[in-house]
Task: inverse folding
């Protein structure tokens, strides 16, 4: 497997899951820093130019 260039650590591809969903993998380092776990619920919010992913319990 080829190694990534410096600075490309956070570049991710969208992957088709099933017939109607798209998934993106997140860097494990970021997940660990946030204290998130597998199967944890998150909220995805649309903003200008992108998306925000937050813990569903966070009211902000």
Result:
């Amino acid at each position: 497997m080829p190694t990534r260039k410096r600075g490309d650590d956070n570049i991710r591809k969208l992957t088709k899951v099933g017939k109607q969903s798209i998934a993106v993998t997140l860097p494990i380092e970021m997940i660990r820093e946030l204290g998130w776990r597998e199967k944890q619920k998150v909220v995805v919010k649309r903003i200008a130019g992108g998306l925000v992913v937050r813990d569903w319990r966070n009211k902000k």
